[in-house]
Amino acid sequence: MVNEVMGLGDVAPSLYGECEAQQGMHFCGQGFVWPELVDPATHEPLAIETGVVGEVVYTTLQREAMPLVRFRSGDLLEILGTSCACGRTSFRARCLARTDDMFIVRGVNVYPTAIVAVVGEFHPHVTGRARVVLHDLREGGPTDGGTECFDLSGENHVGAYIPPGVAHGFAALTDMVITYQVDGYYNPADELGVAWDDPVIGADWGVADPILSERDRQNPLRADIPSNRRPYWPMRT
Ligand SMILES: [Zn+2]
Questions:
Q1: How far, in Å, is the centroid of ligand 1 from the Cα of 43?
Q2: What is the pLDDT of residue 203?
């Protein structure tokens, strides 16, 4: 069973594959691609020997229309060996990191500069009106205990950044569409609620008798949240 494969779109879609010994991926582009290692900072050549770490550069040996000569892959390899229990003698390697800031999301190469462009073009389509309440639960935080209430609406075009550890809720004051962006996957163990009508928080929801979810009805008063459950400052819970 092959556990790990690696290639490079510009050179060859598949250049490495791990064998049943699972001791790193064997290079398997012999005859088609000539690999070399270089120091990513100085570009000095490095020997392909066990324990060496370097950026792999490729030269295509058979391409005629668009040959590549010493093409920098951006992949930082560690050479794990040049022999193997499976009998293959091509070098074995693991890809440790990128030498640039590219990263891979579900098989797609992503550059942070591209994300900046996408975020910069983001225009949320918001309709209606929501009252948003933020309350700082972070123990020792700069605004610990503080509460902010404001409206998001299709008219005021306000957005809000909510730091981790700040409790937040909203009440729909009209039918509305709201857009959320999150910086991590949902983790139920990380969730903490506080009573919407806790007088210590003093939230102004803009409605006297809100329709609450069952979960929101069960939330404790701020004073009843054990200290070790509170988010603390400056670390994320
Ligand atoms: Zn092997």
A1: 29
A2: 94
